[in-house]
Amino acid sequence: MLPQGFASRSATIDDADAIYRLMAAGEIRWHGRAEVAADAVAADLQRPELDRERDTLLVEAANGDLAGWAWLHLAKRAQIDVHPSYWGLGIGTALLDWAEGRSREEGSEWLAQAVDDADKAGTDLLRSRGYEVLATNWLLERPITTPGPRNVPAGVTLSRYDEARAHEVYELIEGAFSEFQQRRKSYDEWSRLTVERSTFRPDASTLAYADDELIGAVIALDLPETDEGYVQQLAVRADQRGNGVARAMLDDTCAEFHRLGRRDCILWTHSGTGALGMYERLGMRVRRSTTVYRRTH
Question: The N-acetyltransferase domain covers which part of the protein (predicted)?
Fold first, then answer.
């Protein structure tokens, strides 16, 4: 139940900017900077399988402020955010009640949610309801220095993103990610979340080839109003791992970000990938983390 004076409704595409500003306010409060991108919110709201009428909920204050929001992905994963101005009023609890109810209504056996590790209230709420740790996500950063010589493995060539090979890039990335993800995205969903975003930088995205076979890919975004470049996805074909392909692609993308005047290169990785150690060997360090909690119904 919402606190008195607040109302709820479903989200529309036109709400993307307000949702972005809400999420950014929380990140600024916890970390002193916002890393969420406005077009990421818009992309999530346009996922092909999302029913915005049933699977999103906005909470508005009497003055019209967006106080909180939640969305449910395929009845199994929720995202819930409350504006810092409205923390402590029970809005997060009400949104979690809604998400759990929708998940059960759709017949899901469990619900998961990622919570920023700086969000002590959100963490305490989930733990109080019996949620258990499922995984950890780390945001990694690497300062971009003046590029040195490129160490590209023998027999491998690097190039910029090629739109004509978009389906090959999708197959390579989703094939690599399917080793730890439970669900494989459709091409339509993948492209909306990556190469169709306004922040996508094909000139900073790197493809790796052995002869003419695609063996690796980096999808890069240029985060607006920051001095950082974002590696959204990095994947290497299984039979080519351990040969320096990932390092070569990351160095190449970071060099392009340097040309664009960016100070840091950042990316997220997940404990299920087992890739944290590799990224640390590539010069990246943990900036912050989130924890994924899950509970069965």
Answer: 6-145, 156-297
Q: What is the mean pLDDT of residues 7-31?
A: 97
| 96-137 confidence digits (pLDDT tens) | 999 999 999 999 999 999 999 999 999 999 999 999 999 999
Q: Are 49 and 74 in contact (CB under 8 A)?
A: yes
DSSP state of 201: -
Q: What is the CATH number of domain 140-293?
A: 3.40.630.30
Q: Hey, what are 241's tokens?
A: 């791992």
Q: How far apart are CA 243 and CA 256, in angstroms?
A: 22
Query: Among candidates 243, 177, 249, which has minimal Cα distance to 220?
Result: 249
Categorize the per-residue pLDDT at 223 as very low, low, confident or very high, splitting at 50, 70 and 90. confident
If phi over 0 gives left and psi between -120 and 50 gives alpha, with beta otherwise, what is residue 74? Answer: left
List the domain boundaries for the chain.
7-108, 140-293
Contact (CB, 8 A) for 20 and 28: no
How far apart (Å, rounded) are the C-alpha atoms in residues 22 and 92? 13
Minimal CA–CA distance to 38: which of 12, 15, 16, 22? 16
Distance CA(212)–CA(209), nearest Å, equals 6
pLDDT in tens, 136-145: 999 999 999 8
So what CATH class is 7-108? alpha beta
Output the CA torsion sign for 103, 296, 81, 228: negative
Is the distance from CB of 72 to CB of 103 less than 8 angstroms? yes
pLDDT given at position 224: 78
